[in-house]
Structures are given as C-alpha cells and as structure tokens.
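FORM 12-B: Structure-to-Sequence Request
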C-alpha cells in the first residue's frame, strides 16, 4: 500500500458506502481526499434544473459530513476540471486521481482530457465503473457480441448474470496535513456554495431529501410498504407506489448494488408468486435504466439525434404557443395539465405521466421530441440524459423499440390510471368541483371551462393522431 496522497473525484457518486472507485482508491492508500468540481461548462448549460442543483448541493453537504466521519475531507473547486484537478493534485503531491466512469458523451470527452492533463503532470488517472450493475460490454448479443437495441432480450441476458454485492464504506482515511491545508488554500478551494450563490432558486420541497441517509431510509420504506404491490400500483399517479429513488440514483447518493441487494433479499423472502412478480417488475425497471445507459454509451449520437435515422426527415410543427401551453399545463387535457403542473411545482413527475405528456407533445401537438426532452432536463430533479433521452425517443417512436408506433389517448389513460380523478384534482385546483366523469374523459363543456378558468382543448386528439400517422407513413415511402 502506498503512503502517498490520492484524490477521489466525485461526480455522480456522492457517497462513500458502496462506491467502487473509493474502495479501489482505499486499497492503494489511506490518504484519500475527496474532490468535487463544479464544472463551469455544466453550470452554464441551459438545461440545468434548479431542483436538481438543490438536490446535488444538499447531497454534497452530507458527503462532506461522511468524509469528516471517515477522517478526511471533501474539497470543492469550481471551473474547468481539465485545469482544476491537475492543479489541485499537484499542489497536494498526489500520485493518483481516481474516479468512476460515466456513459454520457460530454463526460467521456472531458475525462479523456483530464486523464491527459494528469499524465502530463506525472499523476496517474485511475478509472472504474460504479453506476451500473453491468458495465458496457458485459451484456451483449450472444449471436454477434453486439450491443442490444431491443429491451426484452437485453433483460433476459442481464437478469441471469451475477450481480456484484454492495460494498462497505472505507475505513481509516487520513485527511489533509497542516502543510497540505496551506497548499490547498492557494489553489482556489472554495466552501460549498448555496443555490443562490450559483444564481438559481428553488423554494419548493424536494420529493426526496438529498443525501445517502434519506435515500437509504426511502429504500427501506419502499421495500416494506410498496414493493409487494409495485406492478399494479406503480401506474397510478395518485398513489405512492413508486420508489422515488430516481434522483438518488442520478447522483449516486445510494449505490445501485445496494438497491439491487434490497430487491434480491425481498425476492428471497417473498412467500408467493404474486410477491415475486411485483419484485421482479421493479428489478425490470432497474434494467430499463441500464439498457438506456448502455445504449447511450454505444450510440452517443442518441444525445442529439433519433436512433431511427429515417426520423430525421419527420415533419414536426413549429408552434411555440402550443409548446408553451404544454409547458404551463394549459392544454385543456386534464391528465396532461395535471402532470405538467406537478413537474413545474415539485421538479418531479410520475413515470406513467411522463409517457402520457411525451406522447401528447409528439403525437397530438406534433412537436419535436427534443423540445420536450430539453424542458424535462430544465425542470426534473432526477433529470438524467440516458433515461430522459431514452424515454422521449420511445414516446416519439424514433428510438430503440421493436414496436415504434404507440399513441396514448389522454382520456383512456386518465380513465384507466386516475379513475376517480384524484391526481387531476390535486394538481388542477380550479377543476376540483367538476364531475369526475368529465375530468377523466376530458369532455368539459366550454361554458364550464369559462366558469372555472380552465382552457378548452388546444387540439383534437383524434384528428391529430391521424395527421401523425400520415406523416409517419410517409417516412417509409
């Protein structure tokens, strides 16, 4: 074991427990100091959600405490990681900088530049995978050894592969010496900023409190209260039937192995086929996350373009007024508007509703799926490029999917998944006095809309879906 200083660069792994990279770094040296770089390029991007930043900063505050309890420190720097990290590592005479890899195109390009810069200072970059149960390349087609482009065979292969166990937190870390503290003071290490320091604001309560402690408690609560009825209850937006762990996974405040282990224990203890089916459905959702992560890694063009290249010729409308009505939850379709207002007010939206509003934007409003994808990233507390992009391309029928043409009928979705209009009434207070049948069918008389201050439908679903189908058909000619 080395007696030299090592840095661990945190990105979307804001925890010490069950962290593959930290464990590998600890095997090399006890003298580990954490670092988080507030990447100027990412902070300046126009798709940074204030709710997401608030969650990240709260999680970093808890990570600082975790490091202190382990005997070390988390250092915060701000700027370009290509300059900041080598400068910090050199000031501390670190022999290596460890970090966990990411699938996103920007991260891969940035990491390559950071690695090159570190090597130029004779500092070793050491990278490993942490955010996936199976790293890219471990789950490939059996016939040709190629990445999967269809979920079901990916799931069948992925599910039978052995999963790594959750890892403990590293022990006995050694923090900065007095001399190192002096050196650090000269390289612009900063206190953890507030959200307002970063020029953003978010006053609403987050769906899940930041940090590992809250995520661990939520996992236990979900496994105890909702997991055994997950298959059915997950589809009802008015019911607390989902795990609410998406933001925790996005920022890695809880390890995916920890989550999988909890599901595996529940499966072993299940006493009925029904219970096991519910647990397996949740495991399948974890697999969907990895499917989209693998897809983005192998097909980085997905970040900008549809997987189906013929869709680049699809004729989308350019109607800013309709887009703004969709964003504001003022389309005249109650289930759509309720979902968009939930998003705007909380920074989160139920997954069933994400599919409903995405289908509505692309199939009813005939607007480019990238408009919606970007708006989601501007608002979602759990906004993740791979999952968000994959979901939007699925909804727009231009992504990785064996049955590309799906059109959701908003009324049918509301009647099936919000039959008592509880969700609609929660987020559309102006409609709380309206009849349930009127709300779930969306057939609200114009005189009632006027009286309640609610818009009439901005498009006709039946007509718009025919237009979409015609345009879709023309792609194949």
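FORM 12-B RESPONSE
SEQUENCE OUT:
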């Amino acid at each position: 074991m080395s007696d030299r200083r090592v840095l661990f660069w945190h990105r979307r792994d804001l925890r010490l427990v069950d962290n593959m990279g930290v464990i590998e770094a600890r095997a090399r040296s006890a003298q580990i100091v954490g670092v988080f770089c507030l990447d100027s390029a990412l902070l300046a991007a126009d798709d940074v959600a204030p709710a997401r930043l608030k969650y990240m900063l709260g999680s970093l505050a808890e990570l600082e405490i975790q490091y202190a309890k382990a005997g070390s420190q988390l250092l915060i720097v701000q700027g370009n990681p290509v300059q900041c990290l080598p400068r910090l590592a050199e000031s501390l005479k670190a022999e290596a900088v460890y970090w966990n890899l990411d699938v996103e195109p920007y991260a891969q390009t940035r990491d390559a530049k950071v690695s090159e810069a570190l090597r130029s200072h004779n500092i070793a970059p050491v990278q490993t995978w942490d955010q996936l149960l199976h790293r890219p390349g471990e789950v490939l087609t059996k016939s040709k050894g190629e990445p999967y482009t269809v979920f079901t065979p990916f799931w069948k292969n992925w599910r039978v592969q052995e999963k790594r166990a959750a890892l403990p937190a590293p022990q006995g870390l050694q923090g900065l010496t007095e001399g190192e503290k002096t050196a650090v003071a000269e390289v612009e290490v900063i206190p953890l900023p507030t959200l307002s320091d970063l020029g953003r604001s978010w006053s609403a309560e987050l769906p899940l409190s930041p940090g590992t402690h809250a995520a661990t408690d939520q996992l236990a609560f979900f496994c105890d209260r909702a997991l055994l009825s997950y298959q059915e209850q997950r589809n009802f937006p008015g019911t607390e039937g989902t795990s609410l762990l998406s933001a925790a996974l996005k920022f890695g405040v809880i390890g995916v192995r920890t989550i999988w282990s909890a599901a595996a224990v529940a499966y072993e203890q299940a006493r009925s086929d029904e219970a096991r089916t519910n647990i397996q459905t949740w495991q399948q959702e974890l697999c969907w996350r990895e499917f989209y992560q693998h897809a983005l890694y192998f097909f980085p063009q997905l970040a900008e373009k549809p997987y189906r290249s013929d869709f680049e010729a699809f004729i989308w409308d350019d109607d800013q007024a309709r887009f703004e009505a969709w964003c504001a939850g003022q389309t005249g379709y109650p289930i759509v508007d309720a979902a968009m207002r939930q998003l705007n007010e909380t920074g989160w939206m139920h997954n069933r509703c994400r599919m409903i509003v995405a289908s509505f934007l692309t199939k009813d409003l005939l607007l480019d799926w990238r408009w919606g994808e970007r708006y989601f990233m501007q608002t979602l507390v759990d906004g993740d490029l791979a999952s968000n992009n994959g979901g939007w391309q699925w909804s727009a029928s231009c992504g990785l999917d064996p049955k590309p043409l799906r059109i959701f009928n908003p009324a049918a979705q509301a009647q099936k998944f919000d039959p008592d209009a509880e969700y609609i009434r929660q987020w559309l207070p102006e409609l709380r006095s309206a009849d349930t049948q009127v709300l779930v069918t969306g057939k609200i008389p114009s005189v009632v809309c006027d009286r309640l201050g609610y818009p009439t439908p901005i498009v006709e679903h039946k007509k718009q879906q025919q237009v979409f189908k015609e345009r879709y058909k023309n792609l194949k000619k």
